[in-house]
Design a protein that fits this description.
- The complex is a heterotrimer of chains A (265), B (300) and C (377).
- Chain A has 265 residues and is mostly helical.
- Chain A contains 11 helices and no strands.
- Chain B is flat.
- Chain B has 300 residues and is mainly alpha-helical.
- Chain B is built from 11 helices and no strands.
- In chain B, α2 packs across α11 and α4 runs parallel beside α9.
- Chain C has 377 residues and is an alpha+beta fold.
- Helix content of chain C is 23%, strand content 34%.
- Chain C contains 9 helices and 20 strands.
- Chain C is elongated, with a radius of gyration of 24 Å.
- Classes of the chains: A mainly alpha (265), B mainly alpha (300), C alpha+beta (377).
- Chains in contact: A-B, A-C, B-C.
- Chains A and B meet through α1, α3, α4, α5 and α6 of A and α1, α2, α3, α4 and α6 of B.
Chain lengths: 265, 300, 377
Amino acid sequence: MRQKIGRWLIPVIGGAAFIYLLVPIAYIFVFSFNDGGRANLQWQRFTMENWLNPCGAPAVCESLGHSLQIGVVATVIATVLGTGIAIGLVRYKFRFRKLTDVLIILPLATPEVVLGASLLAQFLNLGWELGYGTIVIAHVVFCMSFVIVTVRARVSSLDSRLEEAAADLYASPVAAFWKVTFPLLLPGIIAAALLSFAMSFDDFIITNFNSGAYQTFPKFIYVSATRGIPAQANVIGSAMFIVALLVVVTGQVISYRKKKQLENS
Amino acid sequence: MSLDLRSKAELRAEKRKNRTGVYLVSPGLLVLALFFALPVVILLAMSLYVKPPGAEVGEFVPGFEISNYGTVLTAYWPELLRSFFFALIATVLALLIGFPMAYLVAVRLREKTLLQGILLVLLIAPFFSSFILRTQAWKQILADEGFVAQALKFIAILPADGHLTATPIAVVAGLTYNFLPFMVLPIYANLGRLDTRLLEASGDLYASPIVAFTKVTLPMSAPGVFAGTLLTFIPAAGDYVNSALLGNNRDTTMIGQVIDSRFFKIIDYPGAAALSFVLMISILILVTIYIRRFGTEELM
Amino acid sequence: MTTLAEQTQAERTSGADLLLSGITKRFAAFTAVEDLDLLVPSGTFFALLGPSGCGKSTTLRMIAGLEAPSEGSISIGGVEVTSLPSHRREVNTVFQSYALFPHLSVLENVAFGLKRKKDKQAIQKARAGLELVELAHLANRKPAQLSGGQQQRVALARALVNRPQVLLLDEPLGALDMKLRRQMQLELKKIQTEVGLTFIHVTHDQEEAMTMADVVAVMNGGRIEQMGPPRELYELPRTAFVANFLGKSNLMRGTVSGQSDGMLSVDVAGRTILLPAQRAVHTEGEVVLGVRPEKITIDRAPLAGENQLSGTVVDVSFTGTTTEYLVQVEGIGLIGTFSQNRGQQPAAEGDTVFLAWEAEHSFGLAGDESVNAGVPS
């Protein structure tokens, strides 16, 4: 009897949880087809207009463009710097190691409000104008810790004897890195970069502290939330979700194919 | 006096190796030092600033006004406590919901590669759709005139004048919802490595499914649960998007909202900085106790 | 198409002398290798044999340039390479774990070193290398798709195609099962004879070292105990460690009581055993006298032979081709021997038996040696 309960309990709770996870996404998708005027609060009638003309509402596409640009720039910087730290931490000895560890873990243990507030204090102190540059810096800081943690796991599981083998086979340290270390770390680096982009693109709190008047997509939605979010934002939210699905599905298919290929031989 | 027994060649090789390490680590560390460590110090300094007599709004001078802390703590201790309370409930709920999800995908569906792949995609994909948009969607779904509230009123679970939004329940539900993937993914990563043969073995040794679960599955997934609870609790405690969108009344205000409005509406930089610092330190203390008590080496 | 072996034959200058002088390697708390001097002549198949932790792998890593010695110098072909980094040394290694690059195909793995040296014929040479190890048909597979034995051969080809001055093999057969190991031993030896490179083979398997190597060096505690052709090492060990680690030995304590015509008389627990003076490390005082089990004949009746002992059989074990006996000899201890299973069994448990061997088979070690040194535990 007990066993039976266990058998269906997990699929039921798990399944319900997945529905819980997807309800708002479905809602966003459905309401992206609503001809609901500026507020888009009540269902009026079906229209394709929002999808055909996603930039129809003022500032939607502009803020989206800002967010994409910041996401890409911050991700590139955070991934490069974070990967360097991850490799350095695992493979090399240097002084102030403990301090370095603390410096990496602390941003992860610091709530976004505090990160945002402290950076704001810093920028106010320096007298820097808030905007694109300060947002990028803020995003690099909080994305970097995630990159380090993700890539470090990958470096730790990398067999250091492979690098020795490369050196033994006439590869200079630089060649060994590009021909052996980097390709083997690449899946981890890509995962870290995707995570970093997602965090940056979706960030509101830290951005809100350090953006001044500069508009990003999450800021735009937050500000519009009080008077209703235009359906075009739903279109963009849905499109992002679909793109993400495609990216993740492609990744899954590739790794599935590789696995199959290995099994077949 | 200690004698270095190593040869020149050895020292040279070691130096060469470690120089590379320094090149790799320095740029990133510099960024963290300049834009994380230093700002925290400045925040601390700012929390002690004083407002000179007759100053304009937002004008402060460096000082050492420890009473700033007393002032904001007296005024905002309920919000601070509420933040931790909400975050705690959200974390527990996320664990209760998230563990079966992770177990379902990682263990139950191990043989069914396709379904497992689909669910895994659904777990990761919310990261890429705006979380404010989703929170706003919840607000509209649960709105007084929305379908859910009407239906609940119809079957009299909700009183006719009741609300779903603007309640602590809505805020906690929103927090749980938004940080659920942060709970599920680390647990999934750990359960994915769980060897089901261990469960079979414990079955062979006459362990009931429940014993097998508590003695094998749970300990094996402990590092994931540990990471997941931290990744949920910390951002939830500092969050204010959920309390602002789904709550937005006196019973639901969280500390993040207060810090935000101290900074931007009331322009009380020292007060906001003091509150931020209190929040940071309290979380660090809580997390440290938690790590000491339950921690594993492979944290983060 | 020319094979790698033919190419090498054409320009048979590739192997080079390897000289280690005064090499010492210290790690934080212990000394892994101590004051090691070693000359390996060009074209030799050289084995470094020893138990794990004896410093043999560290020595190999220093030759490869993966570890810097604390003291001493290394030269290859007369050129000092002590401070040269690994990638600038004409030395290649077959790693114990193979260390094949998992993201590259078999062919790309084999071509890796040649490409780094900007060899224009890298791919052709890599193909030839794969042919040498009979894996040309698997060139496009990934390492994970190969069996252990195939991976081992890829690792070998990957090192060989560079035609290094010295090829290092770090327990390359350790991960293979017994049958495959024997087969690979023969193949390795054949390949080495074909290409004529200097091979340095690290192993803890004494049988492997003896079947393959021209010269074996037995290492223990960071030092070389004894070095020489396998037969010489086996027949005339100079330390108790070598006597026990390389095959089995019966060692007994005694005192030299006289000498005539180059023959020492050794008093062992009241019996006199003969030992040729030139086969003894010390020719007077306390000595440890040894004899290999297969040199001893055993029978219930007294036997002919210059050295004689008698005792009681305490253990008989049948191994197929031979039967092994443990004989308790009063005042000396257990002596092991065996007989070929040709006819009747010469003795059973509990029998009183006679043991005999020729004096020329005795060997003498220093008297202060532990008789159990190097016995596999």
